[in-house]
Amino acid sequence: GVPVLFVVPWVVLRYLYENEGCWERNEKAAVWWVIRCPILVAVAVNFVVFVRIVRILVAKVRAHQVSRGDTRLRLARSTLTLIPLLGVHEVVFALAGEGEGGGGLRLAR
């Protein structure tokens, strides 16, 4: 239910101040940041959780007396599993433009 606290004010602001055409366009930055700030906070929290989990994984993998190649493989496999699960890829694109431009970062997103 927490997202409702951010979505409802955003919808009201969009309806009152930017209700022309498609809601995909973000021409007024203030209205856009009402919904974008909570998203950025969630991405940041997920990234912190990801870093902490990777630190724990590294400690656990190093604690076991296993061959060096197997250790790296296990760590890489678990890390690559966590990246899409926690949305770490969003950190790269967090502040990428949402506008109409055709920049390389927007195309990659």
List keywords for this structure.
109 residues; mainly alpha; 72% helix; GIPR protein; gastric inhibitory peptide receptor activity; transmembrane helix; G protein-coupled peptide receptor activity
How do the helices and strands follow one another from N- to C-terminus?
Answer: HHHHH
Question: What is the helical fraction, as a range of percent?
Answer: over 70%
Instruction: State the total count of DSSP E strands.
Output: 0
Estimated share of beta-strand residues: under 5%
What would you call the shape? Answer: elongated
Q: How would you sum up the major sheet?
A: none
Q: Please compute the radius of gyration using only Cα atoms.
A: 20 Å
User: What count of domains describes the coordinates?
Assistant: 1
Separation of termini? 28 Å
State the secondary-structure class: mainly alpha
Number of helices, where a helix is a run of at least 4 consecutive DSSP H or I residues: 5
Instruction: Look at the structure and give the mean pLDDT.
Output: 79
Low-confidence stretches: none
